[in-house]
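User: Design a sequence. Structure:
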């Protein structure tokens, strides 16, 4: 069974077709789904029943609710009726997400199964897929912030992502909810920008007009040096600099991408290794190497 720190370091790998599919779900449902996806192994040739402990989810997502098991049960009941609508050259493919959900009363465990028709989009992916760090996703509150994070992650190598407003509304299932662009901008774009401001997908955006109407949005990823850290992350960054003589950019990258509790644990482990005389190279280089190896930086 995975423990919370393993979930912090887990990766959810999915086809780009799922990232751009049309569907509606809550942020809690989306986090359950991505946690489930993170349990798939690269060499899996078929789906298995995947188990999640409510306690692990509670700790990994840093939630405080004492009623998380009941909330997760409601969330997965909802997921059983959710459908991915994937645009294909021949039309639209509709796939249910889960085929079953089983609960083990008194043990705080749920066992979930993917619909078999999702295999091409989650198993044995060789091209056109995106890797998502679960740690970043679990810290987000809004489903729209999570969806935009996924899209930006897909295009991080280019540094920008352009989409038609109507296409983005379609993917988020908001064609009828926010007919006013200003409402859409306030409740979706600006909310996502606020939540992603201290993640590795922090962005600015440009509105591209067609006549007087905003037709497209260009999301521009912020360079690492321009991402603003919270006070907690700034303190962690300074600790890394003081303890291991890391550079500003090295320490900032760690502070953004690695969970705070994991940073503290790794600092302790490195210092213990140093005291035992096992650090044979430059401490800064050794420390950065440890973080890179453990957290895929």
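Assistant: Done.
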């Amino acid at each position: 069974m995975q423990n919370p720190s393993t979930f912090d370091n887990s990766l959810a790998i999915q086809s780009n077709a799922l990232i751009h599919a049309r569907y509606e779900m809550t942020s809690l449902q989306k986090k359950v789904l991505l946690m489930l996806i993170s349990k798939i192994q690269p060499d899996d040739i078929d789906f298995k029943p995947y188990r999640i402990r409510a306690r692990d989810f509670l700790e990994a997502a840093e939630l405080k609710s004492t009623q998380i098991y009941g909330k997760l049960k409601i969330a997965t009941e909802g997921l059983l009726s959710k459908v991915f609508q994937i645009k294909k050259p021949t039309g639209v493919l509709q796939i249910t997400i889960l085929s079953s959900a089983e609960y083990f009363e008194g043990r705080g465990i749920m066992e979930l199964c993917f619909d078999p028709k999702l295999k091409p989009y989650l198993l044995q992916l060789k091209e056109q897929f995106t890797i998502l760090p679960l740690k970043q996703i679990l810290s987000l509150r809004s489903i729209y912030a999570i969806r935009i994070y996924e899209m930006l992650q897909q295009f991080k190598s280019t540094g920008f992502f352009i989409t038609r407003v109507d296409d983005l509304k379609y993917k988020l299932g908001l064609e009828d909810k926010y007919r006013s662009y200003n409402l859409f901008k306030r409740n979706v774009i600006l909310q996502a920008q606020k939540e992603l401001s201290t993640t590795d997908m922090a962005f600015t955006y440009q509105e591209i007009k067609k006549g007087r109407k905003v037709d497209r949005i260009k999301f521009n990823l912020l360079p690492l040096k321009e991402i603003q850290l919270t006070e907690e992350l700034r303190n962690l960054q300074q600790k890394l600099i003081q303890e291991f003589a890391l550079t500003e950019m090295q320490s900032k990258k760690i502070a953004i991408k690695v969970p705070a509790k994991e940073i503290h644990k790794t600092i302790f482990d490195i210092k213990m290794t140093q005291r035992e005389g096992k650090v044979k190279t430059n401490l800064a280089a050794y420390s950065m190497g440890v973080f890179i190896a453990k957290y895929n930086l």
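The longest strand covers residues 213-221. The radius of gyration is 20 Å.
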